[in-house]
Amino acid sequence: MHPVNYLPGPATVRENVRFARAQEPPGIEVYGEAVRKLKHLVGTEHELHILCGEGMVALDAAVCSLVEPGDDVLVITNGVFGSWFEDLVARHRGIPTVLACPWERPVSPATLDAFLRQTEKSFKVATLVHCDTPTGVLNDVRSLVSLLMRRGILTIVDSVSAAFATPLEMDAWGIDVLLLGSQKVLSCPTGLAMVAVSARAWAAIETRNTPIAGYYTNLLLFKGCVETGKFPYALPNSELAGLLAAINNIIQETPEALQKRHRTIAAAVRTGLQESGLRLFLDDGYSPTVTAFRIPEGVTAREIVADMQKLFNITITCGLDSVTDTVIRLGHLGENARVETTLFVLKALGAVFSRRGVPLRKDPGEVFFREYCKIVGINS
């Protein structure tokens, strides 16, 4: 049986991206074209740079370059990846203050506003995550950044798992450092990370009192490299070629159609799960890229994941951290977000629960397809 990937990343890679990676055209020209097109897609006129490494290298580079020893940094978190910023800040000798919010819903702008009004600290930087994939929660980045910007706080936004599938306007929203990855909605192999930096953030980086304690994660070494053609590392030509092909796939589909496809698939998946009797992990704030649901009594998440792999050659995954054993995540992002693939995954999911002696009220695949047809306006 052909393997099916339904992970919340890395997403399935389209064949034309694989083919492009085998061609290895000159890297400098491809790098420049990819940067120009990415800037347009995320709504920025600021510098954007492509780093060789998984998305975490972007997080590390942002904190390494912007945070100095002794800097107060506000870590806004309602999930696993949001909390990881605390460790990154501490490793670079910043002083993290964590605003921990419930995992079951987006960070409330009112909660952040109240916190900022009562705190006595003067934060230089705040970190937040657009979509925290362990739960699939989508935060209202625009509103949160607006509150922080009014107080002169620089913002680092991790949009690795949300960008391109949902509206994102770096300049219009006032984001200072935007972090992206190749392996999610772009549907490239894992291996590239992107960092866009505002003028405010560059000014803070350039006027540091202490040297940046990193080399590859020192964003100053990348500044102006598109114009000069001088890079602080050997360009990964094949990876860049694949990235450009993936960007062109989005442009050809159009960003609006891509976002609509993700919204439609995600909404139909949630309906399929809920009408079958499964409980979603979130109360609201659903991401168009990931859906997490709770496992009913009588079976574990690990058992369902293992059965999906063994019986149907479908790869899904459990939650992370405190919800590893009780939550399953479905990744309908990028090339995964196709109606045929999703229908197969949900039909298999219903069969696996039945084999485990936990029959569902309805077939989640059938409900998904009915809802999908209803949303797009065709008869099922």
UniProtKB/TrEMBL annotation:
UniProt GO cellular component terms: peroxisome
EC number from the UniProt entry: 2.6.1.44
Designated name of the protein: alanine--glyoxylate transaminase
Any GO MF annotation of the entry: alanine-glyoxylate transaminase activity
Species for this entry: Giardia muris
Superkingdom to which the source organism belongs: Eukaryota
Pfam family, one: Aminotran_5
Cofactor(s) it depends on: pyridoxal 5'-phosphate
Lineage of producing organism: Eukaryota, Metamonada, Diplomonadida, Hexamitidae, Giardiinae
SUPFAM superfamilies with a match to the protein in the record: PLP-dependent transferases
UniProt xrefs under PANTHER family: ALANINE--GLYOXYLATE AMINOTRANSFERASE 1, AMINOTRANSFERASE CLASS V
Keywords associated with the record: Aminotransferase, Pyridoxal phosphate, Pyruvate, Transferase
A single GO BP: glycine biosynthetic process, by transamination of glyoxylate
Aminotransferase class V domain sequence ranges: 58-323
Name of the top EC class for this enzyme: transferase
Entry similarity comment: Belongs to the class-V pyridoxal-phosphate-dependent aminotransferase family.
Positions contributing to substrate binding: R329
InterPro entries named in the record: Aminotrans_V_dom, Aminotrans_V_PyrdxlP_BS, PyrdxlP-dep_Trfase, PyrdxlP-dep_Trfase_major, PyrdxlP-dep_Trfase_small, SP_NH2Trfase/AEP_transaminase
Location of N6-(pyridoxal phosphate)lysine modifications: K184
